[in-house]
Structure formats: structure tokens, C-alpha cells
Amino acid sequence: MPADLPGLDGELFKGFHSMNADERENLADATASLHKKGIGLPKPWHDALYELTPQIVPTWKGERDGFYYHPCFDSLCVRILCDGNPVPDEYFTIWDVDLDDVMTAATDHLESLSKDKHFVRLPSGIYVSDYGDGLDSSRVLLPHCWNRLFHGQNTFLAIPRPGTLLVAPQVLLPQLVEAIGAALKDAGADILAATMYQWVDDKIMPASLQEPHPMIQPQREFRQLDVMAAYGAQAAHLAEMGIGDPCPLGMVRTQQGRTLTVATWVQGKTALVPDCDLIGFVSSNGKPLGLYWRRTLPRLQRIKGGGVEVWGPRRLAFHDFPTAEELDQLECFAPHDVHAQVLGQGSDRPAPAQQQSSAASASVQSSSPVPAHLRGLSLGVQDNDGG
Fold first, then answer.
1. Which of 62, 63, 209, 364 has the highest Cβ tally under 10 A?
2. How far apart are CA 98 and CA 102, in angstroms?
3. CA distance 304 to 148
4. pLDDT at 328 over 70
């Protein structure tokens, strides 16, 4: 570290000479680590104490960004903000405070910012937070702010973007789905989570709906959208690493209206395959070879995937492409001609391989309550009624 590092001669290090050897070493290592990362030193604890707030982010983002994070529920985690910036682990060492104390201070501060504020009832009957400070999604950590809006009824939540917290009873789930779709459309790249959550036994968990509830399919699509967002961010990073081709992930819709995630694996370079329902194999000249169930891939003894060291959801790296005989060992979901229709091709006209990545963004109109921009691809020829 340079001797003139800003803050090195400040209040943070006044007690340095009274520390024992281990304490000095830990403090010096934390300071050097911040310098290496290009992060400045924190404010003294007694000043930072009143600027801390919790922040909810997807777990993949917590893993990617390198700041402190702690899983909270489902695929979301909590980070700590100090004056609006994420706090790295090194700050806790320099402050010489327990993590629990930092989390308590952040939550207490959010609590104080939430006093005398309220939710607004929308014309649909659901409620939306109206705090106006951009921390609304973090208030999902303060159940007393929202868990009695529908007293005696099952409470459902959504935090589609950082400045929005939606609350609804079960009878208004269709309206909640519409509100989530509208929020996601306005959020652009600033999407937090599409999934609907439920308050059950003083815990927040993904909404679990039973057949034949009409909102099961929208919830499935919302959860798939969150998975696709994680894999999409991860793919951009993997492309820069140059260790293989991250298979693009999209959705297909069956004739029964169910959506399935599908990865497109193009023959050629090492394929970085995500966890998904289906794999669409494409030859090196762009010819669709069919859609196959991902779960049957381990049947191929010759082709073994290796783990990819990267943040976010799991991928396996495959260096070999299945032969025609090996594809016959897998469970086929749709033959090559239907696969071609899914990719927007004629059954006898293969498309160039570079067009495959755009297949995941295609969508069709349907009777789904999920907004059009969130819907999957159509699979094959649909009935006249769109079923």
C-alpha cells in the first residue's frame, strides 16, 4: 500500500499501536485488500452506523459482485449498503464489529425510515409500497409493515424491482400477476425478482399453488424468468472468459400451455450447458437435430460434463457433441422438424448457427395472463383455439 493512502492516518487506525500482532495483521490485510480492489476505506463506525441499510439482490449478483452478502430466502440474498454503496467484508474487520451488529444497525435504520409511511391501494385491490426512497423491496425484511394488510387471509408478495413491493391476498393473484408484469416491463435491466412469494408461518417462500389453480403457470414462468436472468448475466461473463460457448437459454410452450426451459447446444466449441428441462441440439451447419430431455443426458457414457468454476447457477462443460446414435439413446421431446419450427425455420431449411442465440427471445401471443414479453416460444402447430 502507498504510505499516503487516503484515510490511513485517520481515526480508523488510531488504536493500531495498542493492538496485538494478530489484530494489526488482520487490519493491515483488510486495508491492503480494499486497496487492491480499488475500494476506499470506510467511514468510522460511529459515523457509518446511521447510514447503513439492507439491500435485497439476487444471489447470483451477490456472488458476482464480490461484496458481503448473506442468503435470506429462495434465490435472494441481503447485502449491506453504507451511504448507498455495497459494503465489502473487509469493512467489518476495519470497524471491528460483529456482523450481527451491522445487520441489526442496518435493519434498525430501515425501520426508522419506514415510520409514518404507508402502502397505496391500487384500483385492482392489491397494495403497492409508497415510501419513495428506493428501498421498498428491502422492506420485505420488515413483515410488520405489510403482513396485516389482508388480516386473516393468505398474504402474497412480489419485489419485481428495487423500488417496488407488491402485496395481495390469494383471491387477487391474477391482479398481482398483472402488476408484476407491468413492473418488469418498466424495470428494463433493473429487474430484481419476478417470482411471487408467500408469507407462511412467519417465513417468506416462493408461492406454492395447487392444481388446478390458474396462477400455477404464471408462477412457473416467473420463476423460469428469474433463472434465465441469472444464466443470461452469467453467459456474458463466460463469453469474456473464452472457455467455451455458453448455451443460450429460452422457453418453449407445449400445446397444454406448460412452459419448459430449453438450452441450445450448437456443435463446435466446448458447450457450457445450464440446468434446464430440454436441450436443443444443432449441428455445426445450423441444422436442428431435435429437442431432448436434459435429465437423460447422463445416459451417454462417452460424454461427461465437468463443472464450470463461475458464480451463479450451475453449468457443465462438454467438449464432445453427441453422435446420431447417441442422440437415439436420449429421451426425445420433439423431433428435428418441430425443433426447426420452434427456431422459426422451415422443416427442410436449416438456419445458420449464429441465428440460434436469437431463438430464446422470440415470443407468441396466447391466453396466458403473463404479459407477452414474458412468454415462451410456441412448440409445434397449435390448436385453433390456441391450446
1. 62
2. 7
3. 52
4. yes
What pLDDT, in 10s, does the model give residues 160-196?
Answer: 999 899 999 999 999 999 999 999 998 777 899 999 9
Contact 38, 14 (CB under 8 A): no
Give φ, ψ of 82 to 5 degrees.
-120, 115
Please tell me the chain's helix, strand, coil percentages from 3-state DSSP, rounded to the nearest 5: 35, 20, 40
pLDDT at residue 70 tops 90: yes
Torsion angle of the four alpha carbons 282, 286, 289, 292, in this order, in degrees rounded to the nearest 10: 30
Which grid cell is 40?
A: 476506499
Burial class (CB in 10 A: 0-12, 13-18, 19+), 360: buried
Provide the grid cell at 287.
Answer: 441444422
Q: What is the pLDDT of residues 80-115, one digit of tens each?
A: 999 999 999 999 999 999 999 999 999 999 999 998
Q: Is the dihedral of CA 222, 226, 227, 232 positive or negative?
A: positive
**Does the bond joining 123 to the residue before it have cis omega, within 30 degrees of 0?**
no
Separation of alpha carbons 108 and 125, rounded Å: 30
Question: Could you give the CA distance from residue 148 to residue 144 in angstroms, rounded to a whole number?
Answer: 7
Q: Rounded CA gap, 208 and 225, in Å?
A: 17
DSSP states along 294-310? GGGGGG-SS---EE---
- Classify 282 in phi/psi space as left (phi over 0), alpha (psi -120 to 50) or beta: beta
Give the C-alpha distances (Å, rounded to integers) separating 144 from 147, 163, 194, 201: 6, 18, 23, 14
**Intra-chain end-to-end CA distance of the chain, in Å:** 65
d(C-alpha 243, C-alpha 104), whole Å: 42
What is the per-residue pLDDT across 337-360, written as a single tens digit (0 to 9) for each? 999 998 887 544 433 333 333 333
